[in-house]
Amino acid sequence: MFDLRESLIDTMAKPKEVLVVIDENDEAVEEIIDDVETIHIYECMRETLVCLTNIDNGAMDKCI
To answer: Is the CB of residue 15 less than 8 Å from the CB of residue 38?
Structure first.
């Protein structure tokens, strides 16, 4: 389990990206960059890490 935790942490996918731009009215506007595949991989990896943390919280503290 320790190797699985280390591997997930080392190769964690990026969460969704938000770009803040200034529009023509000089207002800050968020533009969300959609990459559905990367977001799905990130969500799966995050859920797996949450489950591993719930199984053995002490071991997760040692990974960080």
So the answer is: no
What tokens does 61 get? Answer: 């503290």
CB 5 within 8 A of CB 52: yes
- For residues 1 and 10, give the distance between their C-alpha atoms in angstroms, rounded to a whole number: 14
13 CB neighbour count, 10 Å cutoff: 16
Per the CB < 8 A criterion, the answer to whether 9 and 60 are in contact is no
Q: What is the pLDDT of residues 12-33, one digit of tens each?
A: 887 777 888 898 898 999 888 7
Q: How far is CA 2 from CA 24, 29, 40, 64, in A?
A: 51, 42, 23, 11
Mean pLDDT of 37-42: 86
Please report the pLDDT score of residue 37 as a whole number. Answer: 84
